[in-house]
Design a protein that fits this description.
The protein has a two-stranded antiparallel ribbon with strand order 1-2. The termini are far apart. The radius of gyration is 14 Å and the shape is globular. With about 90 residues, it is α+β, with helices and mostly antiparallel strands. It has one domain. The chain is built from three helices and two strands; from the N terminus they run H-H-E-E-H. This is Deoxyribonuclease NucA/NucB domain-containing protein. It comes from Actinokineospora spheciospongiae.
Length: about 90
């Protein structure tokens, strides 16, 4: 399955009902919709749309900068976990 098809399939975890439940926030999923592990079973949370857009751009840049190809394995590492925001971004 190519990347676009996988993203479309995996995005289905953000169903219309889930989107309505989260409004006005955006539906963010983890693992990422672009990952093989994304999709059914992924965690979904409501996040401000600006955060969703920034995170999506950061993931896309990471794929490009690291020359990741469809099917390549990668590891997500949380650095400075004590600094993870516990409240909604307001910037």
């Amino acid at each position: 399955m190519d990347l676009k098809a996988r993203e479309l399939k995996n995005r289905s975890v953000c169903t219309p009902a889930r989107l309505a439940e989260l409004k006005p926030k955006s539906c963010d999923e983890y693992p990422f919709k672009s990952a093989k592990e994304g999709g059914p079973g992924a965690s979904t949370q409501g996040v401000p749309t600006i955060e969703q857009n920034r995170q999506g751009g950061a993931v896309g840049r990471a794929y490009t900068v690291n020359r990741l190809q469809d099917g390549d394995a990668f590891l997500v590492v949380i650095i400075n976990p004590g600094q993870i925001a516990t409240e909604e971004f307001e910037g």
